[in-house]
């Protein structure tokens, strides 16, 4: 038996909206054998644009029962049936959420008439309920009302049952089939094409635009995990409706996937990626020359087009680094903005300090240059050589002077010890502190994968 359901609501996601109308048609595989319909008081105002779409007004539901009053009847009708709807995850998420609030746990197999229509009646320009019904000459005198849409969906489902020569409905209901949890607009063939290897995957909307980028050790497993559960939140429901296509790019190993995901998020700026859209390291050490010709070092917030001599994760980290340079190279704490009062200089030179004019700008600037050179010497140059996409290649990632240079794939026989040949083989990418630290931390965990270049190899 099938419970063919349509609901009207106050908005697009269950966690913050109420149900205004429920209609259920019980179908035995040949015909509708029972019908149920009720208005529901959603316990909140119905937005004007919703009333304009459905025709359901606040006055119409004022004396209607609240959902908890009809929850038991609805649960008894649907809980032991196959739940069918046009874009089933929407209706199911609403009923499941509101039934749970009333103390009922809805667990049903689901069928989506959008997905089934795409398979059984291919080639239509649109698979909205109205357009499919128009194509099949299915009447609907009450469009956007639960009873009218449930009756139309029932008629459509009857046609699908009769036309299903390739047994798509039976396949969708198999226990191992994941199709019923997929977004309504996503072809299952996109899932079938995904590999079980490390890489990056892309969710596209109806125009082909990338709306989400993710990375995975196992692309197929990770993509399928997005579609499990019935989160009623607005973002998830909107996200699911907007997924029309999935593409992917294999990356050989997890680190390559991590880096490629970061690069693609910065390049594509997908709507549903929240992380990695801002600078990871918010502070840096900056130098500038003051009016007297002294080069000053300061810790400051990162700016979009600035070029710090060193980056750091916090003001405290930058201050501690600067204190070490002051002590090691005899720099002036006042000229480094560590000491900001009018008291005598607390530097090692005391009253003979540069801030008092007892050290020339040239002499002091030489010490600043030595301190910066020491910072740069601590920045590593190395490569990570790791598993590739196939058995006859390696992946390779290059860090040069503490900055991410690029990555790519090389043959097993390629001499990765020569940095100049390696740079000609790799693809340069824009880097950031997040990528740099990913690679450095990875090198610390897996030192046997690290390729260190000798001084003669990196000499210009």
Automatic annotation (TrEMBL):
<dbReference type="Pfam" id="PF00929">
    <property type="entry name" value="RNase_T"/>
</dbReference>
<dbReference type="GO" id="GO:0008408">
    <property type="term" value="F:3'-5' exonuclease activity"/>
</dbReference>
<dbReference type="InterPro" id="IPR047296">
    <property type="entry name" value="GIY-YIG_UvrC_Cho"/>
</dbReference>
<protein>
    <recommendedName>
        <fullName>GIY-YIG domain-containing protein</fullName>
    </recommendedName>
</protein>
<dbReference type="InterPro" id="IPR013520">
    <property type="entry name" value="Ribonucl_H"/>
</dbReference>
<dbReference type="GO" id="GO:0003887">
    <property type="term" value="F:DNA-directed DNA polymerase activity"/>
</dbReference>
<dbReference type="InterPro" id="IPR012337">
    <property type="entry name" value="RNaseH-like_sf"/>
</dbReference>
<feature type="domain" description="GIY-YIG">
    <location>
        <begin position="196"/>
        <end position="274"/>
    </location>
</feature>
<comment type="subunit">
    <text>DNA polymerase III contains a core (composed of alpha, epsilon and theta chains) that associates with a tau subunit. This core dimerizes to form the POLIII' complex. PolIII' associates with the gamma complex (composed of gamma, delta, delta', psi and chi chains) and with the beta chain to form the complete DNA polymerase III complex.</text>
</comment>
<dbReference type="InterPro" id="IPR006054">
    <property type="entry name" value="DnaQ"/>
</dbReference>
<dbReference type="GO" id="GO:0005829">
    <property type="term" value="C:cytosol"/>
</dbReference>
<comment type="function">
    <text>DNA polymerase III is a complex, multichain enzyme responsible for most of the replicative synthesis in bacteria. The epsilon subunit contain the editing function and is a proofreading 3'-5' exonuclease.</text>
</comment>
<dbReference type="InterPro" id="IPR035901">
    <property type="entry name" value="GIY-YIG_endonuc_sf"/>
</dbReference>
<dbReference type="GO" id="GO:0006289">
    <property type="term" value="P:nucleotide-excision repair"/>
</dbReference>
<dbReference type="Pfam" id="PF01541">
    <property type="entry name" value="GIY-YIG"/>
</dbReference>
<dbReference type="InterPro" id="IPR000305">
    <property type="entry name" value="GIY-YIG_endonuc"/>
</dbReference>
<dbReference type="GO" id="GO:0003677">
    <property type="term" value="F:DNA binding"/>
</dbReference>
<dbReference type="InterPro" id="IPR036397">
    <property type="entry name" value="RNaseH_sf"/>
</dbReference>
<dbReference type="GO" id="GO:0045004">
    <property type="term" value="P:DNA replication proofreading"/>
</dbReference>
